[in-house]
Amino acid sequence: KAKSELKDFLHINDFDRDTILKILDRAAEVKALLKSGERTFLPFKGKTMAMIFAKPSMRTRVSFETGFFLLGGHAIYLGPDDIQMGKREETRDVARVLSRYNDIIMARVFAHQDILDLAKYATVPVINGLTDYNHPCQIMADALTIIEHVGQLEGTKVVYVGDGNNIVHSWLLLASIIPFHFVCACPKGYDPDAKTVAKAQQTGISKIEITNDPKEAVKGADVVYSDVWASMGQKEEATHRRQAFQGFQVDENLIKLAGPKAYFMHCLPAERGVEVTDGVIEAPNSIVFPQAENRMHAQNAIMLHLLGV
Ligand code: CP
Ligand code: NVA
Which residues form the Aspartate/ornithine carbamoyltransferase Asp/Orn-binding domain (predicted)? Predict the structure, then answer.
């Protein structure tokens, strides 16, 4: 099947470059429509979405639920205690039952295999709302935000400082289809998945660097990006990680090294005073809130694409 016709959105590079850019254009178009107060575009009328959350969420839950509603649909929130996918019931059964009620499924899970299984057995589109491995909806929103603020994604320098986690994997997968300069500065032992790095580098599409030197990395950045040092599921490692990540806080000095054109981005939630200072988040070049807003607009466009409307 052509990449533009795939049923699900599980990894950013499930789509090709043209499809990604088309979805981002659509996101901007529907964003403008919703921001104008227009409420008569209801392509999801009569449609329902099941949202499975094995982990907590503010942005993902509220942006999906609100976006689907604003475009005419109805979204159902299923929290960690509700269906207990893989515990109370096997994933393949959840997939087939929900497919008989709903037009689309969105899920946030721990093991990446769970989202793959869900998509395999579901007969409706499945959207990845974050796994331990990646977070494609976040990076679509980030790309939209960069296009709005920097002007374009192609050719920009994005420097991620912190843990080589699910966010980094999605950046790497985006860099394997759209050309930009991606640098991940992480402490030794906290690098992103080596296979994902190698594969993204082998495509030759983007300049991709993994380094342990944040000060050198941020020079000339268009965007300095940060995320928590202990992701969901790693909170018991938080104290140990605070030691290991010394020197990787995005503070005023690091932003100064980046230079005057650098925007600050963070997928949120942020731990102020840990991976980023309060001053950096509150500074005029911080675009974390437009970035959070764009989750909804990017996801609306992803759903329009998957549902073919
Ligand atoms: N950025 C993000 O996914 O936020 P939530 O965990 O609140 O959904
Ligand atoms: N890396 C973070 C992202 C939260 C949106 C986590 O997985 O917890």
Answer: 154-305
